[in-house]
Specification:
Blueprint lengths: L1 E4 L11 E8 L4 H10 L4 E4 L5 E3 L4 E8 L4 E3 L3 E5 L4 H11 L14 H7 L2 E2 L2 E2 L4 E7 L4 E5 L18 E8 L5 H18 L14 E2 L3 H6 L12 E2 L1 H7 L6 E2 L2 E3 L7 E3 L5 H19 L8 E3 L1
Parallel strand pairs: 2-5, 3-5, 4-18
Antiparallel strand pairs: 1-2, 6-7, 7-12, 8-9, 10-11, 10-12, 13-14, 15-16, 16-17
């Protein structure tokens, strides 16, 4: 495809253009990626585009969209293409009586994108039931075991290596179908209030801060204990204390409900997002002496 608008590829609905986008299918993926590398053409992999801030200037290279999305339910787990929506995986797992994904219901995006950032919610992460991942490593397709993926809170080896995730094999424990489906429904209800379906955003902008990290140790004494959730200091709370809620630059604003959420009214620019991000980082650095880390990725 030619002359793509990045705002149409991302849930934040902003960004300039890209001249070319390849929609990768399972069979042509390695060949197309190999050719791009051989010709030294810069490329950026996009899944669901739900965790991306795309530059207003657009992207000079090629956008590579992971378009294969098969899900196969096996005896002891699920084999899933990287381009499958995470929600489809949650539903398949629930319906098949496999536990582990039910609390991830409602996280938008693809399985590839979720594994890249080790997406999670309500105490669970997508990598938990993972057995191995099929990747294209720049020269060949191969499987890597979970213990080689360096999964941590919203982190993985994929943030450091230019590998493309193609498929994932999950080995899952059994659960009660009815309960799993019920749990997912409950979570979707909660999430729909937090993120109405037409909200133009990229989810949480910054990562929360694990108490055990050096940043966490620096902050812990200043935190009311009841604010610490699941061993993490919520960045939303820190941002509230520096008056982030309702802050606005141009057409982008910090949500009145969640200080770690930026919302585009539809006419926003990536530069406005970046100005707010930099302002917030500065305020937190001044007040707490720590530097916030973005969870969102920049496409530029
Ligand atoms: C309303 C809303 C709510 C959200 N709630 C949550 C939440 O509760 N928990 C949470 O963890 N996240 C949440 N997010 C963030 C986002 O949905 C997740 O990070 C999601 O897993 C990203 O998947 P994606 O396919 O959209 O990735 P994209 O946004 O397309 O890409 C994100 C990064 O992953 C890389 N990538 C994507 N696919 C591949 C691949 N196949 N191989 C290699 N690299 C790849 C991209 O290059 C990019 O760097 C939310 C976002 C929104 C908009």
């Amino acid at each position: 495809m030619k002359n793509i608008k990045l705002k149409n590829l991302t849930s934040f609905r902003l960004g300039g253009g890209a001249r070319v986008m390849y929609c990768l299918e399972e069979k042509n993926a390695p060949l197309i990626l190999k050719n791009l590398i051989k010709k030294k053409i810069n490329y950026f992999v996009v899944g669901g585009g739900t965790n991306i801030i795309a530059s207003d200037k657009g992207f000079e290279g090629v956008i590579v969209k992971i378009s294969f999305n098969k899900i196969q339910v096996l005896k002891s787990g699920i084999l899933c293409d990287a381009g499958a929506p995470l929600m489809k995986l949650v539903n398949e797992a629930n319906r098949s009586g496999f536990a582990g994904f039910e609390t991830l219901a409602g996280i938008p995006g693809t399985v590839g994108g979720a594994l890249f950032g080790n997406a999670g919610a309500y105490g669970k992460e997508v990598s938990e039931g993972l057995s191995k991942i099929k990747i294209f490593d720049g020269s060949r397709v191969r499987w890597i075991a979970k213990n080689k993926c360096a999964f941590a809170y919203r982190d993985s080896i994929f943030k450091k290596r230019p590998w493309v995730i193609l498929q994932a094999l999950f080995k899952l424990k059994r659960g009660d179908k009815k309960n799993l489906i019920k749990k997912s429904k409950e979570i979707i209800c909660i999430r729909n209030k937090k993120y109405p379906p037409d909200l133009k955003c990229a989810g949480s902008i910054f990562k929360n801060i694990p108490v055990k990290s050096s940043m966490g140790q620096k902050l812990i004494k200043k935190m009311p204990p009841e604010k610490i959730i699941g061993g993490k200091i919520p960045v939303g709370f820190l941002l509230e204390t520096v008056g982030a809620k309702g802050m606005r630059v141009g057409e982008i604003r910090v949500s009145e409900d969640h200080a770690n959420l930026l919302i585009n009214n539809g006419r926003g620019k990536a530069d406005e997002v970046k100005t707010i991000i930099n302002n917030l980082k500065l305020k937190i650095k001044r007040k707490y002496g720590v530097v916030l880390e973005e969870e969102v990725r920049y496409l530029e």
